């Protein structure tokens, strides 16, 4: 009976070891960037903005236009300033004349640091003028990454100050 307990304990330790080692190996997976993605970027830029109303803040808008974007490619995220940003397609709805737009936007709002909010960061380090597009294709779940270096930064948009009603 004592030998059976030891055998079961040994098997349990071996299984636990394999579970932990497989979890660690998936976490430390290196990310490689795709050199030749299944799409073509025709224009990509970032543009900072400052609100004209106190308390609204400032931010950065990301714009990417694709000259070729196959239907089986799904643009998921943009990574900029080491932040993960949802990529939103514009127009969102199919236009009967032009189809879906090949223009995507991402928004980063800069506000005072709130300790209760956790920013989702990029899984890699980026330089100031770099952006990464995270995408899926062929119906697969694997996320691929394409890096845009030397991203153009348009001059900032400063919205005019709007006087709040009821204050003079």
List keywords for this structure.
168 residues, alpha+beta, 2 domains, five-stranded mixed beta sheet, four-stranded antiparallel beta sheet, 38% strand
Chain-wise SSE layout:
Blueprint: H1 2-27, E1 40-50, E2 58-68, E3 73-80, E4 83-86, E5 88-90, E6 103-110, E7 131-137, E8 144-148, E9 152-158
Parallel strand pairs: 1-9
Antiparallel strand pairs: 1-2, 2-6, 3-4, 3-7, 5-6, 7-8
Q: How would you explain this protein's 3D organization?
A:
By secondary structure, the protein is an alpha+beta fold. The chain has 2 domains: 1-30; 40-158. It has 1 helix and 9 strands, in the order αβββββββββ. It has one helix at residues 2-27, and strands at 40-50, 58-68, 73-80, 83-86, 88-90, 103-110, 131-137, 144-148, 152-158. The strands form 2 sheets. Strands 5-6-2-1-9 form a 5-stranded mixed sheet, with no helix packed on it. β7 and β8 form a beta hairpin. It is elongated. The relative contact order is 0.21. The model has no long low-confidence stretch (mean pLDDT 79).
Tell me the overall shape. Answer: elongated
Q: Roughly what percent helix?
A: 10-25%
Overall mean pLDDT: 79
- Biggest sheet strand line-up: 5-6-2-1-9
Derived from helix and strand composition plus strand pairing, the structural class reads alpha+beta
What fraction strand?
35-45%
Low-confidence stretches: none
Largest sheet geometry? 5 strands, mixed
Q: How do the helices and strands follow one another from N- to C-terminus?
A: HEEEEEEEEE
Tally of domains = 2
Number of helices: 1
State the end-to-end distance.
88 Å
Radius of gyration: 23 Å
Q: Care to count the β-strands?
A: 9
């Amino acid at each position: 009976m004592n030998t059976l307990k030891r055998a079961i304990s040994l098997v349990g330790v071996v299984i636990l070891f394999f579970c932990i080692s497989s979890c660690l190996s998936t976490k430390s997976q290196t990310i490689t960037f795709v050199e030749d993605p299944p799409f073509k970027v025709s224009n990509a830029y970032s543009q900072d903005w400052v609100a004209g109303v106190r308390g609204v803040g400032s931010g950065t808008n990301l714009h990417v236009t694709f000259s070729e974007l196959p239907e089986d490619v799904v643009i998921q995220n943009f990574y900029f300033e080491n932040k993960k940003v949802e990529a939103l397609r514009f127009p969102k709805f199919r236009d009967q004349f032009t189809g879906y737009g090949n223009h995507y936007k991402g928004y980063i709002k800069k506000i005072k640091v709130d300790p209760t909010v956790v920013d989702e960061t990029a899984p890699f380090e980026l330089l100031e003028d770099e952006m990464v597009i995270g995408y899926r294709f062929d119906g697969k779940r694997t996320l691929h990454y394409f890096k845009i270096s030397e991203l153009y930064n348009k001059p900032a948009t400063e919205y005019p100050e709007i006087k709040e009603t009821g204050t003079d």
